[in-house]
Amino acid sequence: MLNEGIDRKEIMDILEKKLSKDFSYDSGSILGSMCTTAFDFGKEVYYKYINKNLGDPGLFPGTTELEKELISEIGELYNGKNITGSFTTGGSESNLIAVRIAKKLRPDIKKPEIILPISAHISFDKAADLMDVKLRKAKLKDNFELDLDHFKSLINENTCGVIGIAGTTSLGLIDPIERIGDLVRDKDIFFHVDAAFGGFILPFLKHLGYNHPKWDFSVKEVDSITADPHKMGMGIIPSGGIFIRDENILQKTGFEIPYLAGGNFKHLHIVGTRTGGSVIAFWAILKYLGKKGFIQIVKKCMENTDYLVKKIDEVEGIKIAVKPMMNVVGITHENGENICRINHKLKELNWMLGKFDEFNLIRAVLMPHVKKEHISKFIKDLKIVLE
Ligand code: 0PR
Description:
By secondary structure, the chain is of the alpha/beta class. It contains twelve helices and 13 strands.
């Protein structure tokens, strides 16, 4: 029942008590999340501009301009020119938007199909379910690489879109984006890259000497990219992004909203009212950290990734599933035994990792909040659990 109102202090005490059940990033317990603590300065900016609503851009032309500027700047980071797009609630919304665009651009296909790797995120299943699109999933090889021959064999006259992933949810791997591009060259098939996780690490890994394959707008067949500030961008939860090459997509496929106080406009979103605060916060985070700041953060994450890999190598009976391409480490049994069974024991010791039964692995994500001492402690507990 709603009461007569209680004072702030009491409310804060109640909240502290209730929320003490939550896991915290800085405890190191959260070893399997793709989110992290937002960058401090971003929080300050977010709080200041928390009332901005990009769902009615005519009322907030300043915020709208800032969003455009940010999209274009990130588009350049992804080797694109005049890239358009928008900030979303996260990777799921961005992927839903991409599937919808792929479908809308091909009204001639009565039973539209999308080809994607089996390792793709569940948001594509949601999109397919909601939009009545059929997904055709390509197999992976034993080394978790996409089986491109199988992928190719799934393309047919009903294909309206193909998906590649730059930073898979389970292992942080990058699909052969250029080779997928070859398969759809000069075909009227929309090519979307899901870099929800990879989008704010891959551009900086390059500067640390990692020689990863091309995954962005430098592959000229790539039509759109998902990249999430609330993952490796250290942005406010929730904030995702969709980046689109063709500036006419909005005109061609957007929803028109004619009655708003700020005036008529078109958008691609699932949601209506939309946070401007987290977009402004991300603008501030990118400006503040710059390339140099991000490279520093990414460098630490990769040092910790290498440290975990080295420590796993020293533990008998287990191994890494595959050499990491970014800060995601899959751990599996050396002899093929079920590793997922130990996950609940790790949870009892407060270690929260991801678990992927279909690939027989548990997943650690070395986000900026994970420190070397957390990894050492984790390895100790892992040894105990394995015994
Ligand atoms: N695309 C990829 C490649 C993803 O890994 C994810 C989410 C998404 C899209 C969807 O993003 P949103 O969750 O922003 O809609 N990957 C994580 C996952 O499902 C999300 C996550 C985040 C999971 C924090 C756990 C966690 O603690 O594993």
